[in-house]
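Marked as duplicate of an earlier ticket. Keeping the data here for the record.
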Amino acid sequence: MKWGIIGTGNMGTILAEAWLESGMIDQEDLYITNRTMEKAYAIQKHYPNIHVCENAASIAEKTDLVFICVKPLDIHPLLIKLEPTLSKQQCLVSITSPYAVEDLEKLVPCQVARLVPSITNRALSGVALLTFGDSVEPVMKGYLTQSCKVFSRPVEIKDSITRVSSDIVSCGPAFFSYLIQRFIQAACEETEITEEEATIMMTEMMIGFGKLIEDGHYSLRTLQEKVCVKGGVTGEGIAVLEREVGNMFNLLFHRTHHKYAKDKREIREQEMG
């Protein structure tokens, strides 16, 4: 099985690194290309036996699985160009959430799936979101699902929860990284702790937190209850969070879904010419 990536930006690169580092595919079976070719050749410096192609058509000609890792508004013109090259034996996989698989199936003659990865997949961890079109054969569906297991926990989702699932899985690391940075900033502003000290402590705390959950020692709720002793300092901090967080995350989901709707509207307008 030959694998191809069109677009080696952040997510395309993460997929390539996850596959290669996990041993899921051999370097010789991976073909990549990018609008800025220097980015593709930069990946080849780390994995010298992968193939760098000069254009997207070459990827479609040489591979069985074609991963589309470009911006939403770049997909339609790209697939119009690739359509004559693709066959029903191939599988086209988009990592772009605004494009529904049924819409992609109207543009190409091959099998179609969607994979929304996460930066956590680079650590061979986290979730990968999968949605399959009606055209995907059982063997291909099983192959794609199994291939994700080596670097993630694959979760098949319906299209109606794509945005919120992506907010959690794909955007979540950025959201919580921001909150952690603000936590550190406040600690430095309110006490004599240095940023370096606070960062070390916070980083190690987060690693330990993840391991407690991963190993099944606690659920999110029982971990909070275990630390939050009645009448203690943690309880005072929780009281502040309960009062101040309010509907912050509700507003976050409103904002991401608004942008999602805008992206889908722009895609429809583009397709209508």
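See parent ticket for discussion. Residues 3-157 form a domain with the Rossmann fold fold (CATH 3.40.50.720).
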